[in-house]
Fold:
Amino acid sequence: MDIHRTGLMVLRVWVEEGSERPLRVDVRETSDPALGFRAERTLTDVDHVLAVVRRFLESGGSDTPAVPEGD
Structure:
């Protein structure tokens, strides 16, 4: 039997003018889209966002959240 895994990650990006760190990236993810998002976090650092996306892709969208604590 062929096992098919599907992960879903959504990035929503905006800028908060006047903020010391104006970039905002809302990251939502799930390893089972039918169950909805299981992790959500808003980040402000491009390198941190890239690390989160890399972890998610390297895990194949597994059950381990790619959104770590901290910013």
